[in-house]
Amino acid sequence: MEFREPTYRRLQAKIHERQYTRDLLNKTTRLLEINPEYYTIWNYRRLLLQSFFVEANSSVSDAKKDNATDDRIQKCINEDLGFLIPLLRTFPKCYWIWNYRLWLLAEASRLLPPSTVHELWQKELGLVGKMLSLDGRNFHGWGYRRKVVSALEEMSLKMHSSPITMTEEEFKYTTKMIETNLSNFSAWHRRSKLIPKLLQERNTNHEERRQFLDQELELVQRALWADPDSKDQSLWFYHQYLISNFDSRCAGDNAEIVHLSNDDKLTYIKAQIEDLRDMLDGAESCKWIYQRLLDLILMSKSLDGRWPVEAPDVESWIEKLEELDPLRKNRWKDLRIHLV
Questions:
Q1: First CA to last CA across the chain, in angstroms?
Q2: 288-to-77, 285, 329 alpha-carbon distances in Å
Q3: Cβ(40)–Cβ(30) under 8 Å?
Q4: Residues 6+ apart with CB under 8 A from 234
Q5: How far apart are alpha carbons 171 and 117 in whole angstroms?
Q6: What per-residue confidence (pLDDT) applies to 3?
Q7: On the CB side of 239, how many CA atoms lie within 13 Å of its CA?
Q8: What is the pLDDT of residues 186-236, one digit of tens each?
Q9: Which of 21, 64, 80, 100 counts the most CB atoms within 10 A of its CB?
């Protein structure tokens, strides 16, 4: 493969002539092993496999067509799925490998019996679990996992009288991944997207939703207290998602965990401000604490119509943000004009 350009040109010419052969498939294999970012080669490979699928469908008699065709197509798909495994290990963040793998499974869903397809997707869930155990923050893997779970849930609608949901299982998986690494942004993000569906499926009442919110706040606060001076954004973004339940501007939002009265929201806000002020002692260089304190102060003002007792500290917090976050210095100056 020293002469990669001539190899590609010969491949391109034969594809244009529709000479879809196993030899051409092998050439795409060698090229992709060198450079999996070459998306045109992936498209050529798709054309080749589609041709093989048609050939498999037409090479057997009608009497034997179903089983023989399925076996040949399944063998072809399994071989290609196997070809991708070492590529994913070497290039775990290459979009084209993940996209092509999804295409293969979509073709399986189109061409093979539901039971066979379900088994393929179930194996994919195990595969992506292993991938994420090697690199738990690979957002390609998390995105792929979401699609695998969605496909399995969709197939359950077709195969069972009552749909099977994987929300509880996936929520527990995010807990496991967060406990392994608190900085796993993808796990926290996935958790936030699962919560509305989880609460709906549990058919939770108001009190259960409130208890759930308390548990999630306690979880993220324990994580923040573990290293309050951390610059890790993932914890703070999840904390922001939780406290958005106290923001009057987010009332009625689909992501709302529990509907609270204004008095209840103010009680939560006050508790959060007290906790963050305690956290600030010894973590004066963490800009996220100051930023979150400002968020809570503004929420309180929006709900109550007046500034909370902590308002006199706002100017010093903004000064600290200007020092710690110089790239957004003008933003903080503008905020000072409106607040101080």
A1: 67
A2: 48, 9, 15
A3: no
A4: 182, 183, 184, 185, 188, 189
A5: 25
A6: 40
A7: 28
A8: 999 999 999 999 999 999 999 999 999 999 999 999 999 987 777 778 999
A9: 100
The residues, any chain, with a CB within 8 Å of residue 266's CB and separated by 6 or more, are 300, 303, 304
Q: Rounded CA gap, 109 and 116, in Å?
A: 9
**Cβ of 261: how many Cβ atoms within 10 Å?**
9
Token pair, residue 146, equals 């979401």
Name residue, tokens 């002469």.
3
* Residue 18 burial (C-beta neighbours within 10 Å; 0-12, 13-18, 19+): exposed
pLDDT given for residue 1 in this prediction: 42
Q: Are 312 and 259 in contact (CB under 8 A)?
A: no
* Other beta carbons less than 10 A from residue 178's beta carbon: 22
**Nearest residue to 181 (alpha-carbon basis) of 140, 145, 120, 132:** 132
Supply the pLDDT for residue 2.
44
Report the mean per-residue pLDDT for the chain.
89
Q: Report the alpha-carbon distance of residue 39 to residue 313 in Å, rounded.
A: 55
CA nearest 273: which of 250, 249, 307, 305?
Answer: 307
The total number of residues shown for the chain amounts to 340
Tens digit of pLDDT for each residue in 72-108? 999 999 999 999 999 999 999 999 999 999 999 999 9
Q: Closest Cα partner for 287 from 331, 317, 259?
A: 317
Phi-psi category of residue 305: left, alpha or beta, with phi > 0 → left and psi -120 to 50 → alpha:
left
List, for residues 103-159, the tens digit of each pLDDT value. Answer: 999 999 999 999 999 999 999 999 999 999 989 989 999 999 999 999 999 988 777
Tokens of 9: 């040109």
Here the tokens at position 241 are 């998602």
